[in-house]
Write a structure and sequence with these properties.
- The protein has 70 residues and is mainly alpha-helical.
- The chain has 4 helices and no strands.
- The protein is elongated.
- The mean pLDDT is 89.
Length: 70
């Protein structure tokens, strides 16, 4: 395989190679999901439930979207 072909493959699949490199370092893939326990106020839980009903998205997805925006 020629160097140019290798460079094209690396460029085309850059995110995949970065994810694998991160996996080598941490043992985790960025798209994996983990369950955690958190404590929220009743008001916050009720707001999340309303958002869930309104958007049809799971509460975990709503939280992820809000956190990733910042």
């Amino acid at each position: 395989m020629q160097l140019n072909e290798i460079k094209k493959i690396l460029k085309k699949h850059k995110k995949t190679f970065e994810a694998l490199e991160n996996y080598d370092k941490t043992g985790e893939l960025g798209f994996q999901r983990k369950r955690i326990d958190i404590t929220l106020s009743v008001d916050t839980i009720n707001k999340l439930k309303k958002l869930k009903e309104k958007t049809g998205k799971p509460i975990s997805r709503i939280i992820e979207e809000k956190v990733l925006v910042e």
